[in-house]
Amino acid sequence: MLDAPSNLGLRQLRPGVEPGARRLADALRACGLVDRLGARDAGRVAAPPWVELFANREQIPGYTRELAERLGELLRDGAKPLVLGGDCSILLGAMLALRRRGHYGLAFVDGHLDFRTEDVDAVAGEDLAVVTGRAEDALADLDGLRPYVLDEDVVAYGSRDGSTAPVRVIDLDALRAGEWAVPPVPYWVHVDADVLRLDAVDSPQPDGLSYEELATLLRLLLSGPVVGMQVTIFDPDLDPDGSAAEALTACLVSAAAPAAR
Fold it and tell me: Where does the record locate the signal sequence feature (predicted)?
């Protein structure tokens, strides 16, 4: 289990207020996630301080390389990393690490498709566009490896924002109706907590998966050729009694512990 406590991909919640997603890892660890999963603690990759939107954007390439280096070490050791964010921009580090190794896919579990390519600002709303090559070179072409994942190797699950992307999309309604697919190659799993019916996230929306539905989805994904997984966007500052942190931890344990065994 590796912490990637970066807020660099997020805009301020309101004037002068930094989001709390960088404390996601601390909150889930406090609920005993490491021990409950029987995971090995791989430490953390510290992120630069959150400053303001475009200054943060300029710091993401450096942090992406640092995270990719650490993930590369874990993957070379035969580990299956579980990365605790942080915001969705940490996906760049994971997919760069995998692109350096070869050809991999992406299972993208998110309430939004994060495929903004115009009027760009916060990378957490653009991460899927970036990793499929649709952003400035400083983000999307690190090491000359654009794209980090091919469109045809991405499946997105659970979106409910009405947006589109040139990848296989199984939105919330289709997912509940039983539509199913997985990437055609070994894949990374991205989980944004806003896929849930949850207010303690950066951009909450009505409806969303229940914890039980998410655990079922993750068990299906983790039964395939998964190389690692990340969890992002949950904001402990919006969960004052800790109940959402405990519920999210229990969901991940329910999903991932059988796969670990």
Answer: none
The domains found in the chain, sorted by start residue, are: 2-260 (3.40.800.10)
Asked if residue 261 has pLDDT above 50, the reply is no
**pTM of the predicted protein model:** 0.97
pLDDT bracket for residue 249 (50, 70, 90)? very high
Closest-CA residue to 61 (of 141, 3, 115): 141
Question: What is the per-residue pLDDT across 171-184, written as a single tens digit (0 to 9) for each?
Answer: 999 999 999 999 99
Query: What per-residue confidence (pLDDT) applies to 213?
Result: 98
The tally of CA atoms less than 13 A away on the side-chain side of residue 204 is 11
Is the torsion defined by CA of 124, 128, 132, 135 positive or negative?
A: negative
- Which residues are within 8 A (CB) of 12 and not within 5 positions of it... i.e. 6 or more apart? 18, 19, 52, 53
According to DSSP, the β-strands at 187-192 and 226-232 are parallel
